[in-house]
Automatic annotation (TrEMBL):
It comes from the Eukaryota. It is found in: Membrane. GO terms for cellular component: fungal-type vacuole; plasma membrane. It is a multi-pass membrane protein. The lineage of its organism: Eukaryota, Fungi, Dikarya, Basidiomycota, Agaricomycotina. This is Uncharacterized protein. It comes from Psilocybe cyanescens. The chain crosses the membrane at residues 36-57, 78-111, 145-162, 183-203. The keyword Cell inner membrane does not apply. It holds the Pfam family RTA1. Keywords: Membrane, Transmembrane, Transmembrane helix.
């Protein structure tokens, strides 16, 4: 669970800095520094937490069966986390695009897993770190993994809502009604990220993925194909 430090913990730190900038800006409304501080931090702050969702899904896929995913668990971390790191360069729209693509990949994985429809791969292709062939690994959907999956869906949804709001807010301009209405920001940005952080803490992946009982229940069996 070391990856929680550069993801969830980093998100919390950046968000604190961003909201501190908002408080500072309320005391000095004509000072540009706190304004830039809160804009930058509240836009990029959720990105590390979003990366945690990518890693969690990769771990779930590893337990349930990599054969049902177009990307291996390792590539979920490489592709989506590296994409999220470039949000500062291309803006909040790219963050929304990453969320949409991630959601589509996750939805396809769960559909294939539940219907036992593995992705066709080259014969003998194996997932790194596993002795099981990708096409015939089918893990058990234990209660813990099911709960974590629902938590992942919820956190992705609040990220999506937040991204839509920020796009509308910024497209309305710096002098627009939306960006000047604080309650919108508090509910559709601050509250959404707070819900995502609390979701990760309440439904902690360290507890739901790596308990002794879970490891016993999540042994992989082989599909009869």
């Amino acid at each position: 669970m070391w990856w929680l430090l550069p993801t969830a913990c980093l998100c919390g730190l950046i968000e604190i800095i961003g909201w501190a900038g908002r408080l500072w800006s309320s005391w000095n409304p004509f000072n540009d520094a706190p304004f830039q501080m809160q804009i930058c931090c509240t836009i990029i702050g959720p990105t590390p937490l979003l990366a945690a969702s990518f890693i969690i899904l990769g771990n779930i896929i590893k337990k349930l069966g990599p054969g049902y995913s177009r990307l291996t668990p390792k590539w979920y971390t490489i592709v989506f986390c590296s994409s999220g790191a470039h949000v500062m360069l291309v803006g909040i729209v790219f963050q929304l695009l990453v969320i949409v693509v991630f959601s589509a990949c996750a939805a396809e994985f769960y559909y294939r897993y539940l219907n036992r429809l593995p992705v066709a791969r080259k014969s003998g292709q194996q997932d790194t770190g596993s002795n099981l062939t990708l096409s015939n690994a089918h893990g058990t959907l234990t209660p813990n993994i099911q709960i974590l999956s629902y938590a992942l869906v919820f956190s992705t949804l609040v990220f999506f809502i937040r991204s839509i709001y920020r796009i509308i807010e910024l497209s309305d301009g710096w002098n627009g009604r939306i960006i000047q209405t604080e309650v919108y920001f508090n509910v559709l940005d601050g509250a959404m990220i707070t819900l995502a952080i609390y979701t990760l803490n309440i439904f902690h992946p360290g507890r739901l993925l790596h308990t002794d009982e879970e490891n016993k229940e999540a042994k992989l069996d082989t599909l009869n194909v």
